[in-house]
Specification:
mainly alpha; 3-stranded antiparallel sheet; 6 helices; elongated
Length: about 180
């Protein structure tokens, strides 16, 4: 006996097809963006380094220049904002996921990409600062453990929350209502 909420095989096939198109578009857009933008990743690392150093200085942690523009030292400990720490891959994936969401207008997708990338960037800055503060004020083993947790969980969870929040607001009319009359 079929439940009233049970999906037909045709509906399941349509959902599977939509999922495949989403994943294909996600990988195509993200892969293309990564290939095109990856030469700029070092500039993003340098920008993040400057922002992180400013945030550290604002809480009284003094940093010194190091050999490379994406390195600095704090309490004689060398800090490097590596490509994996930059959040670049997660930002590219976020752009790909938003672009792959087909039931939303391009205007809402563009707003989501801008807001989402900025939010992920700020989240990542705080993640890096917290990790460095842990490194400065605790032992190395604890700092490495929290770095590993904050690094993976923080960026992945941030990506998921930002995409989920955007998807919810973009599809329930929130963005449409807030931009009504604005062209």
């Amino acid at each position: 006996m079929l439940r009233p909420s049970a999906r037909t095989q045709q509906e399941k096939n349509a959902l599977a097809k939509e999922g495949i198109v989403f994943l294909f578009t996600l990988f195509l857009v993200s892969g293309g963006l990564y290939l095109v933008l990856s030469p700029l990743e070092i500039h993003m690392q340098t920008l993040e380094t400057n922002h992180v150093r400013g945030m550290l200085n604002s809480v009284g942690v003094v940093s010194r220049d190091a050999e490379l523009p994406h390195q600095f030292s704090v309490n004689e400990k060398l800090i490097e904002i590596s490509p994996l720490c930059s959040g670049f891959v997660e930002m590219v994936l976020l752009i790909g996921a938003i672009a792959a969401t087909r039931n939303v207008s391009w205007k809402k997708r563009a707003l989501g990409i801008i807001a989402g990338v900025l939010a992920l960037y700020v989240l990542n800055l705080f993640r890096i600062v917290i990790t460095i503060l842990q490194l400065v004020h605790t032992n190395l083993a604890f700092a490495e453990f929290t770095h590993d947790i904050l690094f993976r969980v923080g960026l992945i969870l941030g990506f998921a929350i930002i995409y989920g929040a955007w998807s919810r607001t973009a599809t329930d009319g929130f963005l449409e209502k807030s931009t009504k009359g604005v062209h």
